[in-house]
Design goal:
The protein is an alpha/beta fold. It has helices at about 15, 30-45, 65-70, 90-100, 115-120, 125-135, 135-150; strands at about 20-25, 50, 75-80, 105-110, 155-160. Strands 2-1-3-4-5 form a five-stranded parallel β-sheet, with helices on both faces. It starts with 12 loop residues before the first helix and ends with a strand. InterPro entries: TIR_dom, Toll_tir_struct_dom_sf.
Length: about 160
């Protein structure tokens, strides 16, 4: 039975059991009340099942099990890479988990240069240096690898500067 407005990624039984069509990964302070909300509303109006973490997280929290489950239970992730995205270790944890799953990824380069994302240069460079001090080489290396991968995927560039 066809689902006219639902996002269909695969006809395999595993894909049909996924709870969410889209997982939105974003830095709340950059895009929550503007770009991300508008994207969420537009997708939802098309009957696309979108997971949006509205709670935000506080300093010191680990990535919530709910977020991990939503990532694992989504067919596609839209990653909204914004100026402060790499400043958040939670965003980077989400990004790494999304990349580990090897599902469809659609990056949105929101006021960031895709080449800066790929190479972690420009404003992202300092974020990764700060994370290195706190989290160490192994974890930050995993985040850098995920950022490099996503930076190399053709996506949408949205720049209002």
């Amino acid at each position: 039975m066809a689902m006219p407005h639902s996002l269909m990624v695969s006809s395999s039984p595993a894909a049909l059991r996924l709870h969410w069509d889209v997982f939105l990964s974003f830095r709340g302070e950059d895009t929550r009340h503007g770009f991300t909300k508008n994207l969420y509303d537009s997708l939802s109006k098309q009957d696309i099942r979108v997971f949006l973490d509205d709670s935000g997280m506080t300093q010191g929290d680990e990535i919530a099990p709910t977020l991990t489950e939503a990532i694992e239970d989504s067919a596609l992730s839209i990653i909204i890479l914004s100026p402060n995205y790499a400043n958040s270790h939670w965003c980077l944890e989400e990004l790494a988990r999304i990349c580990e799953l090897r599902r469809l990824i659609l990056p949105v380069f929101y006021q960031v240069d895709p080449s800066h994302v790929r190479r972690q240069k420009g404003p992202l460079e300092q974020d990764f240096m700060n994370h290195m001090e706190r989290f160490g080489e192994e974890k930050v290396g995993k985040w850098r690898e995920a950022m490099y991968k996503v930076g190399g995927i053709s996506g949408f560039v949205y720049d209002t500067r």
